[in-house]
């Protein structure tokens, strides 16, 4: 069906889910209550969290004052010859601006990593013409705080006043807000009643995007064009219908394959991935989004649900047992998918606004930093340039080679399972490693996700630890070519990145998930060795 601003087509399981779930949602006035910010929609236990997390439904209108504020800042920086915008942020704070700017065709450097080589490269490039946006609700996110410290020092070392180059986006009254204003920095406040992954149309999404040159007023116009439609208690409401497709199939098809089928929106799957996974993966339940690029599967497993992201003028009808098509402008689709995720959370029976296991991984990383990185277990064995160890259930057996270890890991895959590849590497320089995802998926005949660490910790990381215990996990870490100190801290970026990986593996192991950890003792040789082994695995030698 086509509605103003968005189009949704369904067949088979998706249509059946709409028929089964949407009439009841309309009868209880779910949509209008959502847009009235009713915190009772997800049950009593969720009320304290949802009571201060629902302002995202009003952002198409309430964010309008940011348009002029950001435009004035952009003009000021342009007059000073500053034309390179770097964003320091994690999760929703980085993924929304990334897709907004990529779709608009304007450059934005997204620094959402603690990998020292990646941080150093960002610091070294064209500092003279750089403006830095530091995005954090409270300022307590260690990655973002470390990046801010690194940029402040880099500017000072270059004889540049950091206060003239750094813009802070944070919640009003947060520790970062107070310290930044006292320090003389430019601060733009975001709506405090919006969680990170729903913040695309707040200052977190709009400030870096607008400074980079994206038309943020048009983005808000697109969202506003569908606001009344999505708030309507009507069976034609596309938010209710897409929510039913995602969370209402019977039995639940909980692997949501997101395929680029010609959409004009660049990288939308990555943004939707963090929205869905972090919102729904908890209490042993959840939806696992799998970003498959343009590699649409020939057949779907019984637990898979394929969503084709199509162009706005694409009128194709979906075909298959569990296939849907979704199209529309970027602003309209952002609001559509946020509504649909809130609906899916209701149907699954979880609170879509908390992220308990993201916090557990952060705590485990801090513990490792406090104890020292030598506190972890020794490798089970070393093969060439790669150290191999396992955490969680004992699955390595008598494995003595990298190939043996990979086979032992995928042998843990059950009929409903998935493989998660988690690479704590430089996602720009090492981007080709992600090419192994699709061949692995075809060979294993199970979904394969690929996440760059630490950014995935704020998206699929929640699902991996809080969702169903059906995954197997391959973690890849590396020795940095050169480590980098975090100014004012007693740890380096390399130590922090290692602690994040170790903490994540420890929490997965505590949840009885099998984790294979591969550490590249020498980056280039180790990466080549791991890539070759994964290509061999994807060639069908493993099973």
UniProtKB/TrEMBL annotation:
Keywords: Gluconeogenesis, Glycolysis, Isomerase. GO terms for molecular function: isomerase activity. It comes from the Bacteria. PROSITE patterns: P_GLUCOSE_ISOMERASE_3 (PS51463). The keyword Metal-binding does not apply. InterPro entries: G6P_Isomerase, SIS_dom_sf. The keyword Transport does not apply. This is Glucose-6-phosphate isomerase. It comes from Dermacoccus barathri.
């Amino acid at each position: 069906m086509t509605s103003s601003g968005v189009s949704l087509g369904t067949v088979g399981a998706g249509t059946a889910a709409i028929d089964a779930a949407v009439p009841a949602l309309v009868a209880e006035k779910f949509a209008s209550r959502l847009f009235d910010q009713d915190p009772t929609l997800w049950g009593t236990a969720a009320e304290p969290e949802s009571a201060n997390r629902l302002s995202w439904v009003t952002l198409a209108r309430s964010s309008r004052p940011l348009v002029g504020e950001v435009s004035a800042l952009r003009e000021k920086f342009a007059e000073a010859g500053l034309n390179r915008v770097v964003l320091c942020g994690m999760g929703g704070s980085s993924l929304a601006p990334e897709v907004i700017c990529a779709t608009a065709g304007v450059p934005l450097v997204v620094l959402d990593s603690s990998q020292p080589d990646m941080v150093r490269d960002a610091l070294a490039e064209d500092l003279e013409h750089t403006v830095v946006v530091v995005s954090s609700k409270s300022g307590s996110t260690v990655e973002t705080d470390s990046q801010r410290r690194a940029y402040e020092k880099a500017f000072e070392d270059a004889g540049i006043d950091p206060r003239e180059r750094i813009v802070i986006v944070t919640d009003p009254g947060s520790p970062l807000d107070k310290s930044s204003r006292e320090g003389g920095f430019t601060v733009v406040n975001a709506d405090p009643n919006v969680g990170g992954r729903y913040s695309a149309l707040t200052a977190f999404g709009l400030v870096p995007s607008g400074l980079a040159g994206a038309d943020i007023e048009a983005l808000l116009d697109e969202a506003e064009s569908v606001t009344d439609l999505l708030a309507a208690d009507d069976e034609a409401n596309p938010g209710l219908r897409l929510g039913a497709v995602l969370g209402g199939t019977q039995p639940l098809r909980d692997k949501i394959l997101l395929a680029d089928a010609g959409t004009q929106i660049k990288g939308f799957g990555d943004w939707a991935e963090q929205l869905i996974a972090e919102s729904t993966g908890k209490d042993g339940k959840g939806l696992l989004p799998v970003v498959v690029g343009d590699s649409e599967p020939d057949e779907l497993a019984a637990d898979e649900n394929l969503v084709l992201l199509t162009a706005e003028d694409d009128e194709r009808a979906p075909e298959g047992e569990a296939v849907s098509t979704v199209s529309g402008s970027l602003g309209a689709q952002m609001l559509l998918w946020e509504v649909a995720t809130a609906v899916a959370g209701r149907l699954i029976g979880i609170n879509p606004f908390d992220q308990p296991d993201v916090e557990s991984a952060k705590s485990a990383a801090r513990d490792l930093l406090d104890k020292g990185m030598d506190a972890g277990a020794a490798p089970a064995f070393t093969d060439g340039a790669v150290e191999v160890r396992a955490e969680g259930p004992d699955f390595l057996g008598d494995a003595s080679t990298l190939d043996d270890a990979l086979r032992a890991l995928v042998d843990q895959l059950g009929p409903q399972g998935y493989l998660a590849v988690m690479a704590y590497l430089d996602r720009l320089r090492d981007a080709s490693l992600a090419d192994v995802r699709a061949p692995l998926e075809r060979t294993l005949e199970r979904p394969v996700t690929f996440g760059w660490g630490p950014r995935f910790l704020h998206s699929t990381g929640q699902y991996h630890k809080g969702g169903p215990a059906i995954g197997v996990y391959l973690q890849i870490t590396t020795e940095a070519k050169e480590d980098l100190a975090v100014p004012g801290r007693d740890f380096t970026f390399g130590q922090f990145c290692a602690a994040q990986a170790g903490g994540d593996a420890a929490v997965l192991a505590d949840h009885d998930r099998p984790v294979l950890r591969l550490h590249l003792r020498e980056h280039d040789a180790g990466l080549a060795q791991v890539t070759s082994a994964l290509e061999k695995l994807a060639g069908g030698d493993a099973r």
